[in-house]
Write a structure and sequence with these properties.
The structure holds two protein chains of two kinds.
Chain A (H helix, E strand, L loop, with lengths): L7 E2 L15 E12 L7 E9 L2 E6 L4 E6 L3 E4 L6 H5 L3 E8 L11 E9 L5 H14 L1 H15 L5 H9 L4 H54 L5 H16 L14 H20 L3 E3 H12 L6 H10 L7 E5 L5 E5 L4 H12 L2 H6 L3 H8 L3 H13 L3 E6 L2 E6 L18 H12 L1
Antiparallel strand pairs in A: 1-5, 2-3, 2-8, 3-4, 4-5, 6-7, 7-8, 9-11, 10-11, 12-13
Chain B lengths: L2 E2 L2 E2 L16 H22 L3 E3 L8 E2 L4 E2 L2 H14 L2 E3 L6 E4 L4 H14 L6 E3 H6 L13 H13 L3 E4 L8 E4 L2
Antiparallel strand pairs in B: 1-2, 3-7, 4-5, 6-7, 8-10, 9-10
Classes of the chains: A alpha+beta, B alpha+beta.
Chain lengths: 436, 179
């Protein structure tokens, strides 16, 4: 018993629906019910659902009755629900259509109702839904309207077949291009909207993940400080958990207490090995930024962050490696070979500062850089450190910043005219007198 | 040996870092010590009682090595002297400094000794005689800054060791010692 809340469709003699000009069949589904959310309207039971480019048709083959809903009236099509319940029930696709005040399904109606397509037969709801969306996106019923309008405007009464044929290929002329553009924009817009819906779903999942990771982290933190008799297996799995957390970007909570996460330990050793050769070439000291560049360049892929580098270097304190991280007062950080201790560098600086030229005019950071075979910025750091130790003293003038061997130590305040024999002051004095 | 006038300069005067205020504590302490000594010796030998900080005081620069002390350095060295009593600021802007290679009290003692050694007690001397008279010739008193002398004499007056007389003119101001 069919209700008539859907407008009827004429059928051919063999029970096929009469299509509108340009209407194309897209999908056929047997054993479909159409239900209205309005309980007063009786549902259409077990008919053939025909999705066309223009309409949603429902045909009762037994009674040879057909009904249609224009796709133009569809406001929204809801995707099939995926839940435990839906697994055992017939798939349902809900379609929101606009209705006129008196309940007829029309385009641009004042209110809307939801029709449910219930698939009783063996149908794939997802495929149907996809097809439905495609059809809704392409809005081919509009093309028909425009074509007809064009026909009437120009006053040419074209045979329906020709008009239909023409409409089937809407991509002719500038208007065709424009139409295609319009369709593209609309489909993009729609897919973006859907994507954002997916994104929202993803975001809420991500939040859950972060919360979970936090819980795990706290658990690790509490258990590590509490238990002192953890057996190896437990430690192993804890270590694994730390690594997982780290790979997700969460810093291991036990880094400060233990020797640090395994990742940083391994990196630390790798770095110590790597840096040996460049250190030798650079005279025993390299700026940390230079090491960062060199190391990452050598790695090719799997680059490390500056923070990783710093962590790796600070771990060296706990291992027995022949390199160390050093921070100067100025904030400059360098990697220094333990073998090349400060004393050696100072000895070289002192001998440089007591050469005849240096006695007269002092040494600049670039002079020191040349002699020591290191970068000028590092050379300056060395000179400043030597100064702070009383080895050198500074001379600031319009000529620049220079360092001299510290002769103040040689001066006897009670007799400032006296110059000790065999001291650097004596050497200096002679050097001076030689040059005149 | 380099000289400034008839003053013999130490060799370190040609050491460029000498003219740069050293940041390192120990080095600076040494530097300050040397400059204090140098300043006092120079002023004493040249009878310079007042140093103007912004003036071209010869000791503050060495044209041979093209270096001169910064204003900050000058203040630091003079302040060190002041804290020892070997100098005084003459104005609150710290532009003029009174050099006291003998501290005020040391000046007072010096004068008293001078008076005793020369049997000048009970006599009256004018201020000018003290500064440029034959008796003081060759002593520290020769060429002493007038203002400074008066200050020292007033100090002695307070201790009851001297009495200052005002003359008809500044030239006639005199002092009588009661040692």
């Amino acid at each position: 018993m069919a209700a008539n809340w859907l407008p009827p469709v004429s059928l051919t003699a063999s029970g096929r629906p009469v299509f509108l000009p340009g209407e194309v069949e897209r999908c056929l589904l047997p054993a479909v019910d159409l239900e209205s959310e309005n309980p007063g309207l009786a549902p259409f039971r077990s008919g053939l659902l025909v999705l066309t480019s223009h309409r949603l048709l429902w045909i009762d083959e037994q009674s040879a009755a057909g009904f249609a809903a224009p796709l133009a009236a569809v406001v929204h099509a809801y995707p099939p629900k995926k839940s435990i319940r839906s697994m055992f029930a017939s798939p349902r696709i809900r379609v929101q259509v606009s209705v006129s005040p008196d309940g007829r399904i029309v385009e641009d109606g004042v209110r809307s109702e939801v029709i449910t397509v219930v698939m009783r037969g063996k149908n794939d709801p997802d495929a149907f839904y996809c097809r439905l969306l495609e059809v809704l996106r392409s809005r081919q019923w509009e093309a028909a309207v425009v074509a007809e309008k064009r026909n009437t405007d120009s006053g040419i009464a074209e045979p329906p077949m020709a008009a239909a044929a023409r409409v089937r290929m809407p991509v002719v002329g500038v208007s065709g291009i424009l139409r295609k553009e319009q369709e593209l924009w609309e489909s993009t817009d729609k897919s973006l909207q859907e994507a954002f819906q997916d994104l929202n779903a993803l975001m809420s999942k991500a939040k859950d993940m972060v919360q979970l990771a936090e819980k795990m982290r706290l658990k690790l933190l509490s258990s590590s400080s509490a238990s002192s008799n953890a057996d190896d297996e437990e430690m192993g799995s804890k270590q694994e958990m730390q690594d997982w957390l780290l790979s997700v970007g969460i810093v291991s909570p036990v880094t400060k207490e233990s020797a640090g996460a395994l990742y940083h330990q391994q990196l630390s050793r790798e770095l110590a090995d790597f840096v040996k050769l460049p250190l030798e070439r650079a005279g025993g000291m390299i700026a940390l930024v230079d090491v960062y560049c060199l190391f990452n360049r050598a790695r090719g892929t799997a680059l490390i962050s500056p923070d990783d580098l710093l962590q790796a270097c600070t771990l060296w304190e706990k291992f027995d490696v022949p390199v160390m991280l050093r921070k100067f007062d100025s904030g400059v950080m360098v990697i220094q070979s333990k073998a090349r201790r400060d004393e050696e560098v100072f000895a070289r600086i002192a001998s440089l500062a007591q050469k005849p030229d240096a006695l007269r005019t002092g040494i600049s950071p670039s002079d020191a850089a040349l002699t020591l075979g290191i970068a000028p910025a590092l050379a300056k750091e060395h000179l400043l450190t030597a100064e702070s130790k009383g080895l050198l003293c500074r001379d600031v003038s319009p000529d620049g910043f220079r360092f001299f061997i510290n002769l103040f130590t040689e001066i006897d305040p009670s007799d400032i005219y006296m110059i000790k024999n065999n001291g650097p002051a004596h050497v200096w004095s002679s050097a001076l007198s030689l040059s005149g | 040996m380099q000289r400034l006038g008839n003053f013999k300069l130490p060799q370190f005067f040609n050491f460029p870092p000498f003219f740069t205020l050293q940041p390192v504590k120990e080095t600076r302490e040494k530097q300050v010590q040397v400059w204090k000594q140098l300043l006092l010796d120079y002023c004493r030998s040249q009878k310079i009682f007042v140093i103007g900080l912004e003036e071209d005081f010869p000791l503050f620069s060495n044209p041979v090595i093209e270096r001169s002390l910064s204003h900050e350095a000058r203040e630091v060295f003079l302040s060190a002297l002041i804290s020892e009593g070997h100098a005084e600021w003459m104005d609150k802007d710290h532009r003029k400094c009174l050099m006291l290679w003998l501290r005020l009290q040391e000046w007072a003692d010096y004068i008293l000794n001078f008076v005793k050694d020369n049997g000048l007690q009970d006599g009256v001397m004018t201020i000018e005689e003290m500064r440029s008279g034959t008796e003081t010739h060759g002593t520290e008193l020769a060429g002493i800054d007038r203002g400074l002398l008066l200050r020292v004499l007033r100090l002695l007056e307070q201790k009851g060791k001297a009495t200052i007389f005002k003359g008809t003119s500044a030239d006639d101001d005199g002092v009588k010692f009661s040692v």
